[in-house]
Structure formats: structure tokens, C-alpha cells
Amino acid sequence: MTFNYEQQVTKISVSDMVKSLTFYRDILGYEVEDKYTINAGGSYEKNSYIQMNLNVGEGLKSTIGLFVDIEKPFDPPPDSGTVPSLIVSDIKKGLEYLQCKNVAIDPVSDEEFIIENISDEGYVDRFFFFRDPDNNSLVMRQNLKEKEK
To answer: Before 73, cis peptide (omega within 30)?
Structure first.
């Protein structure tokens, strides 16, 4: 027997719904799906929820649920856990865009942010970690063809 589902939603813990909504909408391009909004207390208090979608292709979307269940941003930022990844066609432009928006980006070294991986089959991806207003970690990644020889 198999289980069929219609959609996957990744829940993201937030402390300030308005600040997080602004980040995910205005910087990352997510759109609010109003029918699922829960505005606890009328000012997005604890247990408030906003579901957001990012159109990523024809008929495809990435869905997140912002949920107020922490009192303040994570401090120190978590160093592991579930990390949503945004796949882009140009990692350097993505990095420059987030830098110009003053988004916190995790450095690899003093001046390096982009990490490169090579799969067992020789495929390359480049990525970097960045933070939302509550220090949740996200990834921006570019998948490349096989590494040049």
C-alpha cells in the first residue's frame, strides 16, 4: 500500500510574524496563501500561522508555514537541522542579491561564502547558507553539469 499526498509544507519557527513575513515575501518572493492564515490575538501572537508559496516552475511550488512558536530569534543560531534549499541558475547572482538586501550569510572563511560539492557520479553543486530574521538556516544552491576535466 502507498500513501498519496497532495503537497508538502515545511514549518518554520518564527518569533516575529511581521518581520518574517516581510523577509519571505519581499526578499525571497513567497506569496501568502490567505485561506490558512491564523492571526492569534489579532497581532500575530504565539501560535499564529501563515502559509506561503513560491512558484518554482510550471505547476510546481515550494510551500512553507511560518509558525510563531519561539519567543526570540535563535541565539546562537542552530548549527544543524532541516534546511530548505532554493535552487537557482546563478549562485553568484543569488549571493550578490542577498548581500545587497543585508541578509545574514554564513561565511566559509573570511571572504568566502560558496561551498562546492562533487557527487559520487561527478556532478557538481555550489551552495551557501543564509539566515532568516530568526536565524533559521536556508540554502541557496546551483546544480551544475559534470565537473570540467
So the answer is: no
Low-confidence ranges of the chain (pLDDT < 50): none
What confidence score (pLDDT) does residue 79 get? 80
CB–CB of 84/28 below 8 Å? no
Are the C-beta atoms of 123 and 145 separated by less than 8 Å?
yes
Expressed in angstroms, the distance from the first to the final Cα of the chain is: 45
Handedness of CA 50, 10, 60, 144 (dihedral sign): positive
The pLDDT value given to residue 121: 87
Contact 131, 113 (CB under 8 A): no
